[in-house]
Amino acid sequence: MAFVIVVCCIALLVLLLTWARLNAFLAFLLVSVVAGVWLGLPLQQIPASLQKGIGDTVGGLIIILCLGAMLGKLVAESGAARQIANALMRTFGPKYVQWALLLAGFIIGIPLFYGVGFVLMVPLIFSVIYQYKLPAVYIGLPTLAALSVTHGFLPPHPSPVALVGQFKANMGVTLLYGLAVAIPAIVIAGPVFATRLKRMRTGPLQLFQLKEDDAAPLPGATNSFLTALLPVLLLIVTTVMQHVWPGRPLLQFAGDAQVVMLFCLLAATYTLGILQGTAVKKVMQIYTEAVKDVAMILLIIAGAGALKQILSDSGVSLQIAAAMQSWRMHPLILGWLMAAIIRACVGSATIAGITAAGMIAPLVLEGHADPNLMVLSVGAGSLMFSHVNDAGFWMFKEYFSLSLRNTLLSWSVMETVVGIAGLAGVLLLDLIV
């Protein structure tokens, strides 16, 4: 019966988000209250459960997500992202232009939130298409696949960071595993799959152009690359050092994701701000705008945390976990499947990942699966089959001026390939580690 109630609550969540078009945070709160009442929680306990769920979920995220948003915004506003793309284009040349754009999307996608990276890369993609007279979807899709993979697999993006917290995983190890899974997934879903789309016709719109002033001086290429990649480099280095010299308090402090992000933002404030002649006041305005951009994402994650806590306090999470143990299915596949189903229903990768995590977490915490790999498995499932209920689907359709059919055949299939390739990579890592 408990499982039926959870399914009904998820169905209600889907209806509120799709049919009623309710704000995701409000939808989560309403469904959380309904679930608490239906599952028999004392009425006076429901508000406390909501507060605890929101506090526990957002408390460990807010620093990383806000600092990550600030860093990403500065990388975009300073022109560092454009410098990275330009440098790669000069290095690879026309023959390997697709790979240059893919690598640019991957590097830029690490610090930037998905929507920002998408809007930033599309004008660059079209400028290359016009210059070399190349097929738009064939050239553009691999770049957007790279953005999608970084969004679903790699910290400091919202869903991976939230999943690391829920599964008690290690941020640095998850990042290392994530890179190992992400690169093959990008290659398969990007250049390999895109070879089938060379003849797909599109009419790119002239409306979408870079807002940056082309005459404005850009940061140096080395500066841009190092600043954008600094969080990844520091997390990898400190994680390796902690394995070599375990138990060192200084390394534990320096390797904490929050400390790493704070240091990287301070460094970026100088390298992409002060060093480029930008007033500190202007840099702080950029950071303020960045927090506004991420506010709704934080609220959505908070709402998902409230629902997770209701399920936990009612005991239904443990009941579902116990029932799942009798299913003849690998826990990593189960987590992936849950996220994939919710993604197909709701459309949001972040919501799909967090909601699935609340149901699968007891299995992970009981030691039935590697928490770092479960982060990636759920992340891969949350990217599956993007279609008409996903904002990214419509962004791709409109920017590339595609028919609905061709958008399904290109974008939706690409996202599905990413999800399947990601799961395959996770299962392979599970055999090795």
UniProtKB/TrEMBL annotation:
Keyword hit for Transmembrane: yes
Alphabetical list of Pfam families matching this protein: GntP_permease
Keywords: Cell membrane, Membrane, Transmembrane, Transmembrane helix, Transport
Annotated compartments: Cell membrane
Primary localization class, coarse: membrane
Highest taxon of source: Bacteria
InterPro entries according to UniProt: Glcn_transporter (IPR003474)
GO molecular function: gluconate transmembrane transporter activity
Membrane-topology descriptor: Multi-pass membrane protein
Residue ranges crossing the lipid bilayer per the database entry: 26-46, 58-76, 96-129, 136-154, 174-194, 225-245, 257-275, 332-361, 373-396, 408-429
The keyword Membrane belongs to this UniProt entry's keyword annotation: yes
Entry GO terms, CC: plasma membrane
PANTHER family, A to Z: GNT FAMILY GLUCONATE TRANSPORTER, HIGH-AFFINITY GLUCONATE TRANSPORTER
Family label: Belongs to the GntP permease family.
Annotated protein name in UniProt: Gluconate transporter
Organism the protein comes from: Chitinophaga lutea
